[in-house]
Fold:
Amino acid sequence: MKTISGFSLLVALVIAAAGVARADTAELFDKKCATCHGKDGKAETAMGRKLNMRNLSDPKVQASATDAQWERVIVEGVKGAGGKNVMPATKLTDAEVKELVKLVRGFKKP
Ligand code: HEC
Structure:
């Protein structure tokens, strides 16, 4: 049983680490993004209505951009008509940005 338990421990650690990464990303989204995009990405928020924001769970919206484009949006933010940022730029790590794109991809509802 010894060899099996060692392996199970490793598996459990890997799964736990992945779970932590996801939880952190969800927390990051809740803190930095959900005020505008909503927890489910549908932008059913005061800001979402004011800025007429797109519904990130819409497959058409999902299909309209590549991961690389969204990574850029998350890093650089979005400028409005007046040249002012309507979505703020962020100072996140590459890994955080990639995880956020994955999380946003997960909003897609058929
Ligand atoms: C102050 C409001 C605000 C905050 C905070 C915000 N966004 Fe945005 N975001 C916008 C606006 C406005 C747009 C452009 C209009 C649209 O696409 O709905 C946008 C666009 C996007 C897009 C591109 C959608 C498309 O149409 O292709 C993604 C992806 C995105 N935001 C992700 C995020 C993530 C991730 C965060 C958190 C790090 C975040 N946003 C924080 C307002 C915000």
